[in-house]
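[Q] Does anyone have a clean C-alpha coordinate version of this?
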Amino acid sequence: MGKTPLSNEVKTIVLVGRTGNGKSATGNNILGRKSFKSKISSSGVTSVCEMQTTAIKDGPIINVIDTPGLFDGTNSAGKEIVKCIDMAKDGIHAIILVFSVRTRFSEEEQATFLTIQALFGHKIVDYMLVVFTGGDDLEANEETLDDYLDSNCPQALQDILTLCGNRKVLFNNRTKDESKRLEQVQQLLNLVDTIISHNGKQPFTNELFKQLKEKASETEKAETLGIKMQLQKKYDDELKRMTHMIESKLKEEIGKLMKMLEEEKVARCKAEQNYKSIQSSSNNEIQKLKWDLQVANSRQTNGRRRSGTCAIL
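[A] Here you go.
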Protein backbone atom coordinates (compact mmCIF):
# COMPACT_ATOMS: atom_id res chain seq x y z
CA MET A 1 0.00 0.00 0.00
CA GLY A 2 1.35 3.42 -0.89
CA LYS A 3 0.36 7.02 -0.54
CA THR A 4 0.06 7.81 -4.23
CA PRO A 5 -3.24 6.75 -5.85
CA LEU A 6 -3.46 6.48 -9.62
CA SER A 7 -6.59 8.65 -9.77
CA ASN A 8 -9.15 10.42 -7.63
CA GLU A 9 -11.41 7.36 -7.79
CA VAL A 10 -12.90 6.61 -4.38
CA LYS A 11 -14.35 3.28 -3.27
CA THR A 12 -16.30 2.88 -0.04
CA ILE A 13 -16.53 -0.48 1.69
CA VAL A 14 -18.43 -1.31 4.89
CA LEU A 15 -17.49 -4.03 7.38
CA VAL A 16 -20.37 -5.80 9.14
CA GLY A 17 -20.59 -8.90 11.29
CA ARG A 18 -20.94 -10.39 14.73
CA THR A 19 -19.02 -8.90 17.63
CA GLY A 20 -15.69 -10.70 18.02
CA ASN A 21 -15.33 -11.90 14.43
CA GLY A 22 -12.47 -9.49 13.70
CA LYS A 23 -14.12 -6.64 11.76
CA SER A 24 -11.74 -3.99 13.13
CA ALA A 25 -8.66 -6.19 12.62
CA THR A 26 -9.78 -6.81 9.03
CA GLY A 27 -10.21 -3.07 8.52
CA ASN A 28 -6.69 -2.46 9.84
CA ASN A 29 -5.38 -5.16 7.53
CA ILE A 30 -6.95 -3.42 4.53
CA LEU A 31 -5.64 -0.02 5.64
CA GLY A 32 -2.15 -1.34 6.33
CA ARG A 33 -2.10 0.36 9.72
CA LYS A 34 -3.78 0.11 13.14
CA SER A 35 -6.49 2.74 12.91
CA PHE A 36 -9.50 0.87 14.32
CA LYS A 37 -9.42 -0.37 17.92
CA SER A 38 -8.95 -4.12 17.84
CA LYS A 39 -8.39 -6.61 20.66
CA ILE A 40 -9.70 -9.92 21.97
CA SER A 41 -12.80 -9.11 24.00
CA SER A 42 -16.08 -10.76 25.00
CA SER A 43 -17.84 -7.47 24.32
CA GLY A 44 -17.49 -5.43 21.17
CA VAL A 45 -14.57 -3.02 20.92
CA THR A 46 -16.34 -1.07 18.15
CA SER A 47 -19.31 0.80 19.63
CA VAL A 48 -19.84 3.43 16.92
CA CYS A 49 -19.38 3.64 13.15
CA GLU A 50 -15.97 4.93 12.17
CA MET A 51 -14.41 5.64 8.77
CA GLN A 52 -10.73 5.55 7.85
CA THR A 53 -9.16 6.11 4.44
CA THR A 54 -6.17 4.67 2.62
CA ALA A 55 -4.63 5.37 -0.78
CA ILE A 56 -3.75 2.28 -2.80
CA LYS A 57 -0.50 2.56 -4.72
CA ASP A 58 -1.33 2.91 -8.42
CA GLY A 59 -4.99 2.49 -7.47
CA PRO A 60 -8.00 4.17 -5.91
CA ILE A 61 -8.65 5.77 -2.55
CA ILE A 62 -10.45 3.33 -0.24
CA ASN A 63 -12.86 4.44 2.47
CA VAL A 64 -13.24 1.70 5.08
CA ILE A 65 -16.22 1.96 7.46
CA ASP A 66 -16.11 -0.18 10.60
CA THR A 67 -19.46 -0.86 12.30
CA PRO A 68 -20.59 -2.26 15.66
CA GLY A 69 -22.47 -5.56 15.76
CA LEU A 70 -26.21 -5.26 15.07
CA PHE A 71 -26.92 -7.55 18.03
CA ASP A 72 -24.22 -6.44 20.48
CA GLY A 73 -26.72 -5.56 23.20
CA THR A 74 -26.75 -1.79 22.69
CA ASN A 75 -29.79 0.25 21.70
CA SER A 76 -28.01 2.44 19.17
CA ALA A 77 -28.08 0.17 16.11
CA GLY A 78 -30.52 2.43 14.23
CA LYS A 79 -28.45 5.52 14.98
CA GLU A 80 -25.24 3.83 13.79
CA ILE A 81 -26.89 2.60 10.57
CA VAL A 82 -27.93 6.18 9.78
CA LYS A 83 -24.42 7.36 10.66
CA CYS A 84 -22.99 4.79 8.25
CA ILE A 85 -25.33 6.01 5.49
CA ASP A 86 -24.29 9.58 6.28
CA MET A 87 -20.60 8.64 5.92
CA ALA A 88 -21.29 6.90 2.61
CA LYS A 89 -23.65 9.45 1.04
CA ASP A 90 -22.14 8.82 -2.40
CA GLY A 91 -22.96 5.14 -2.09
CA ILE A 92 -21.40 1.87 -0.98
CA HIS A 93 -19.23 -0.12 -3.39
CA ALA A 94 -19.08 -3.28 -1.27
CA ILE A 95 -20.40 -4.66 2.01
CA ILE A 96 -18.01 -7.11 3.63
CA LEU A 97 -19.61 -9.76 5.83
CA VAL A 98 -16.98 -10.79 8.35
CA PHE A 99 -17.22 -14.37 9.66
CA SER A 100 -14.64 -16.38 11.59
CA VAL A 101 -13.41 -19.93 11.09
CA ARG A 102 -12.73 -20.03 14.86
CA THR A 103 -16.42 -20.07 15.79
CA ARG A 104 -19.47 -21.92 14.54
CA PHE A 105 -21.76 -19.99 12.22
CA SER A 106 -24.54 -18.66 14.45
CA GLU A 107 -28.17 -17.61 14.24
CA GLU A 108 -26.98 -14.07 15.08
CA GLU A 109 -24.87 -14.02 11.91
CA GLN A 110 -27.76 -15.33 9.84
CA ALA A 111 -30.00 -12.68 11.43
CA THR A 112 -27.45 -9.93 10.64
CA PHE A 113 -27.48 -10.88 6.96
CA LEU A 114 -31.28 -11.11 6.81
CA THR A 115 -31.73 -7.82 8.70
CA ILE A 116 -29.48 -5.91 6.30
CA GLN A 117 -31.39 -7.45 3.41
CA ALA A 118 -34.73 -6.46 4.98
CA LEU A 119 -33.61 -2.87 5.68
CA PHE A 120 -32.04 -2.13 2.29
CA GLY A 121 -33.79 -4.53 -0.07
CA HIS A 122 -32.67 -7.64 -1.96
CA LYS A 123 -30.40 -5.60 -4.27
CA ILE A 124 -27.95 -5.05 -1.40
CA VAL A 125 -26.89 -8.72 -1.69
CA ASP A 126 -25.33 -7.94 -5.09
CA TYR A 127 -22.82 -5.74 -3.23
CA MET A 128 -21.82 -8.30 -0.61
CA LEU A 129 -18.74 -10.46 -0.23
CA VAL A 130 -17.57 -12.63 2.67
CA VAL A 131 -14.28 -12.45 4.56
CA PHE A 132 -13.42 -15.38 6.82
CA THR A 133 -10.96 -14.42 9.54
CA GLY A 134 -8.74 -16.90 11.39
CA GLY A 135 -6.66 -17.87 8.39
CA ASP A 136 -3.69 -18.54 10.69
CA ASP A 137 -5.65 -21.35 12.39
CA LEU A 138 -6.33 -23.06 9.07
CA GLU A 139 -2.69 -22.61 8.02
CA ALA A 140 -1.55 -24.25 11.27
CA ASN A 141 -3.76 -27.25 10.44
CA GLU A 142 -2.66 -27.21 6.78
CA GLU A 143 -6.25 -26.62 5.70
CA THR A 144 -7.67 -24.38 2.99
CA LEU A 145 -10.87 -22.34 3.20
CA ASP A 146 -12.54 -24.85 0.88
CA ASP A 147 -11.50 -27.69 3.21
CA TYR A 148 -13.08 -25.83 6.12
CA LEU A 149 -16.31 -25.11 4.24
CA ASP A 150 -16.58 -28.69 3.00
CA SER A 151 -16.66 -29.95 6.58
CA ASN A 152 -18.16 -27.01 8.51
CA CYS A 153 -20.72 -25.30 6.32
CA PRO A 154 -24.31 -25.29 7.62
CA GLN A 155 -27.12 -24.77 5.13
CA ALA A 156 -27.73 -21.14 6.21
CA LEU A 157 -24.09 -20.24 5.47
CA GLN A 158 -24.21 -22.09 2.15
CA ASP A 159 -27.28 -20.03 1.22
CA ILE A 160 -25.52 -16.76 2.09
CA LEU A 161 -22.45 -17.67 0.04
CA THR A 162 -24.65 -18.61 -2.91
CA LEU A 163 -26.59 -15.33 -2.71
CA CYS A 164 -23.26 -13.45 -2.53
CA GLY A 165 -22.11 -15.10 -5.75
CA ASN A 166 -19.63 -17.25 -3.78
CA ARG A 167 -17.43 -14.16 -3.35
CA LYS A 168 -15.20 -15.06 -0.42
CA VAL A 169 -11.64 -14.63 0.81
CA LEU A 170 -9.65 -15.92 3.80
CA PHE A 171 -7.83 -13.38 5.99
CA ASN A 172 -4.96 -13.95 8.38
CA ASN A 173 -5.05 -10.76 10.45
CA ARG A 174 -2.09 -11.87 12.56
CA THR A 175 0.44 -12.29 9.78
CA LYS A 176 3.69 -10.36 10.04
CA ASP A 177 4.51 -11.15 6.42
CA GLU A 178 3.82 -7.95 4.48
CA SER A 179 3.72 -9.73 1.12
CA LYS A 180 1.08 -12.13 2.45
CA ARG A 181 -0.97 -9.23 3.84
CA LEU A 182 -0.81 -7.41 0.51
CA GLU A 183 -1.79 -10.59 -1.34
CA GLN A 184 -4.96 -11.19 0.70
CA VAL A 185 -5.92 -7.50 0.54
CA GLN A 186 -5.49 -7.60 -3.24
CA GLN A 187 -7.73 -10.69 -3.41
CA LEU A 188 -10.39 -8.74 -1.53
CA LEU A 189 -10.02 -5.66 -3.74
CA ASN A 190 -10.31 -7.87 -6.83
CA LEU A 191 -13.66 -9.11 -5.48
CA VAL A 192 -14.71 -5.50 -4.84
CA ASP A 193 -13.86 -4.72 -8.48
CA THR A 194 -15.95 -7.72 -9.55
CA ILE A 195 -18.89 -6.34 -7.56
CA ILE A 196 -18.46 -2.88 -9.08
CA SER A 197 -18.32 -4.31 -12.60
CA HIS A 198 -21.32 -6.58 -11.92
CA ASN A 199 -23.36 -3.55 -10.83
CA GLY A 200 -22.54 -1.39 -13.85
CA LYS A 201 -19.93 0.60 -11.90
CA GLN A 202 -22.73 2.10 -9.80
CA PRO A 203 -22.41 2.03 -5.99
CA PHE A 204 -25.35 0.95 -3.88
CA THR A 205 -27.72 3.76 -2.95
CA ASN A 206 -31.38 4.02 -2.09
CA GLU A 207 -33.82 6.75 -1.12
CA LEU A 208 -32.20 7.21 2.30
CA PHE A 209 -28.79 7.85 0.73
CA LYS A 210 -30.29 10.28 -1.79
CA GLN A 211 -32.17 12.26 0.85
CA LEU A 212 -29.10 12.69 3.05
CA LYS A 213 -26.93 13.62 0.08
CA GLU A 214 -29.41 16.30 -1.02
CA LYS A 215 -29.64 17.76 2.49
CA ALA A 216 -25.85 17.78 2.85
CA SER A 217 -25.46 19.45 -0.55
CA GLU A 218 -27.94 22.18 0.43
CA THR A 219 -26.01 22.84 3.63
CA GLU A 220 -22.69 23.09 1.80
CA LYS A 221 -24.10 25.56 -0.73
CA ALA A 222 -25.55 27.92 1.90
CA GLU A 223 -23.90 31.33 1.52
CA THR A 224 -24.75 33.04 4.79
CA LEU A 225 -24.19 31.79 8.33
CA GLY A 226 -27.86 32.22 9.21
CA ILE A 227 -29.02 30.06 6.31
CA LYS A 228 -26.31 27.55 7.03
CA MET A 229 -27.44 27.16 10.63
CA GLN A 230 -31.05 26.72 9.51
CA LEU A 231 -30.10 24.13 6.93
CA GLN A 232 -27.83 22.35 9.39
CA LYS A 233 -30.76 22.11 11.79
CA LYS A 234 -32.91 20.67 9.00
CA TYR A 235 -30.15 18.19 8.23
CA ASP A 236 -29.87 17.17 11.88
CA ASP A 237 -33.66 16.82 12.07
CA GLU A 238 -33.55 14.62 8.97
CA LEU A 239 -30.93 12.41 10.62
CA LYS A 240 -33.14 12.08 13.71
CA ARG A 241 -36.18 11.26 11.57
CA MET A 242 -34.27 8.58 9.67
CA THR A 243 -32.86 7.16 12.89
CA HIS A 244 -36.34 6.84 14.38
CA MET A 245 -37.66 5.25 11.18
CA ILE A 246 -34.80 2.75 10.91
CA GLU A 247 -34.95 1.87 14.61
CA SER A 248 -38.68 1.13 14.26
CA LYS A 249 -38.10 -0.97 11.14
CA LEU A 250 -35.11 -2.67 12.75
CA LYS A 251 -37.16 -3.60 15.81
CA GLU A 252 -39.93 -4.96 13.58
CA GLU A 253 -37.58 -6.96 11.34
CA ILE A 254 -35.57 -8.36 14.25
CA GLY A 255 -38.83 -9.44 15.89
CA LYS A 256 -39.85 -11.25 12.70
CA LEU A 257 -36.43 -12.86 12.34
CA MET A 258 -36.29 -14.05 15.93
CA LYS A 259 -39.74 -15.60 15.52
CA MET A 260 -38.73 -17.24 12.24
CA LEU A 261 -35.48 -18.59 13.70
CA GLU A 262 -37.32 -19.89 16.76
CA GLU A 263 -39.89 -21.62 14.54
CA GLU A 264 -37.06 -23.15 12.50
CA LYS A 265 -35.40 -24.34 15.72
CA VAL A 266 -38.66 -25.91 16.96
CA ALA A 267 -39.23 -27.56 13.56
CA ARG A 268 -35.64 -28.82 13.56
CA CYS A 269 -35.99 -30.26 17.07
CA LYS A 270 -39.28 -31.89 16.09
CA ALA A 271 -37.70 -33.40 12.98
CA GLU A 272 -34.78 -34.71 15.07
CA GLN A 273 -37.21 -36.23 17.59
CA ASN A 274 -39.20 -37.85 14.78
CA TYR A 275 -35.99 -39.19 13.28
CA LYS A 276 -34.90 -40.62 16.64
CA SER A 277 -38.36 -42.13 17.15
CA ILE A 278 -38.31 -43.70 13.68
CA GLN A 279 -34.75 -44.89 14.23
CA SER A 280 -35.68 -46.38 17.61
CA SER A 281 -38.74 -48.07 16.10
CA SER A 282 -36.63 -49.34 13.22
CA ASN A 283 -34.01 -50.71 15.63
CA ASN A 284 -36.75 -52.48 17.59
CA GLU A 285 -38.13 -54.00 14.38
CA ILE A 286 -34.65 -55.16 13.40
CA GLN A 287 -34.09 -56.72 16.82
CA LYS A 288 -37.48 -58.47 16.58
CA LEU A 289 -36.65 -59.79 13.12
CA LYS A 290 -33.28 -61.04 14.37
CA TRP A 291 -34.99 -62.74 17.30
CA ASP A 292 -37.64 -64.31 15.05
CA LEU A 293 -34.87 -65.51 12.72
CA GLN A 294 -32.94 -67.03 15.63
CA VAL A 295 -36.10 -68.77 16.86
CA ALA A 296 -36.86 -70.07 13.36
CA ASN A 297 -33.28 -71.33 12.93
CA SER A 298 -33.41 -72.96 16.35
CA ARG A 299 -36.68 -74.75 15.51
CA GLN A 300 -35.30 -75.86 12.17
CA THR A 301 -32.15 -77.24 13.82
CA ASN A 302 -34.16 -79.05 16.48
CA GLY A 303 -36.46 -80.47 13.82
CA ARG A 304 -33.49 -81.88 11.88
CA ARG A 305 -32.10 -83.46 15.04
CA ARG A 306 -35.40 -85.16 15.80
CA SER A 307 -35.68 -86.29 12.21
CA GLY A 308 -32.16 -87.74 12.33
CA THR A 309 -32.89 -89.63 15.54
CA CYS A 310 -35.98 -91.26 14.09
CA ALA A 311 -34.05 -92.44 11.03
CA ILE A 312 -31.50 -94.28 13.19
CA LEU A 313 -34.22 -95.99 15.21
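[Q] Thanks! Anything notable?
[A] Residues 10-205 form a domain with the Rossmann fold fold (CATH 3.40.50.300).
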